[in-house]
């Protein structure tokens, strides 16, 4: 062997090095993992979101008094459209889809308004309002970055907190299960047992199982309920087919009521705000910054998924935050993993037997899981509110918004003597609380928000929509990039630190001064 041949051989990568390089090439946003890894990675995403995905049709259908067969159909339609919406978001076409590993599912934010609409106007009005909401989202997507200033953490955090608190009544209803004399002790026992299983999984199980703790709690609680006569009713499973198409307008043609449409458009704005945060977060995780144009594409995909949902008998769709966390945990960046998960969801939606099994889960078990699931929604709102500087004005915004939102929850008949258009909007604590939070923030924080932006390109902590990443959407130094350059942020922090260093003493700023102590540098 010549000297040159030996040198060439020395520079050739070993088998292990080549494998590592191949895996690194696969682990990009546009890289496609081999099928042997693609399917289990996609299935992991499905399992992480499944419990939350099927909860909304169970809640809405149950509140409207639908039969087991109709509930199973709603679940099938939900999974089917969730898969289509996920594929649109991850694969993308033309100006639709952010082309990142994002999972789509029915939003909890619409539950309260949809129940109010369904009880007053019927489920056809829900589907009509859903279609109108989706069209609205598609139309305003290119301009939405200009609306983000109306949704700082004080608003979004309050709304998410209200959603979780309002849904807790649903969990209690599942535990009571229609009894007029209070919850049977056996129901309370199963709810508590399911909740305990979820807690134990979170405490002792490996991280991969912790991600599906709610789903495992439902499964274990249902298996235990099989030993109690009458707890599990799977009579509909035998009658359900192995394959059935999800037909559009299954419950009739949609109707479009103005008050119903307005109610869901308010929800649509909340959905777009949440999706914006999720897109920016996952873009940072996978090192593919979200530009204004890409953000608009993703929001259009949200709107298109919502329109398809209204056509196929389901509800508004949004990005699922728990799957963003899963991307961070696993480190798998490929958007084709989310696409594979979307395909799995479509297949599940075409198998009615699976939906019938989910519908047969005991209500008491659902109630226990619901306490954890809806409690996590409320806790997510509290986490968002942690970005807020709680002066008297912001405390008042949260206090009044939560109070107004809980009125129809604790006193369901409070607005019975009002016109129907009013009750369609305000009989849902979620939409009432959202409107209150938006208006109070505009009224009480306008001067502070204007002062905080004077001469400062970066937002202060209590005005940022989603922290520094989202501030880039209107940041003058980052136009066309979608992200604030790190050096700009660092320069802002250094300038703030030098200004504060010139102030003698370590006293906290006076209340109402608008000045915040400098934040430690973050990456």
TrEMBL record:
Pfam families: Xan_ur_permease (PF00860). The keyword Nucleotide-binding does not apply. Its main location: membrane. Keywords: Cell membrane, Membrane, Transmembrane, Transmembrane helix, Transport. PROSITE patterns: XANTH_URACIL_PERMASE (PS01116). The keyword Zinc-finger does not apply. The chain crosses the membrane at residues 47-66, 72-93, 100-117, 123-144, 151-176, 182-201, 213-231, 251-271, 336-358, 364-382, 394-415, 421-444. Residues 1-26, 494-523 are annotated as: Disordered. It is found in: Cell membrane. Belongs to the nucleobase:cation symporter-2 (NCS2) (TC 2.A.40) family. This is Nucleobase:cation symporter-2 family protein. It comes from Microbacterium invictum. The lineage of its organism: Bacteria, Bacillati, Actinomycetota, Actinomycetes, Micrococcales.
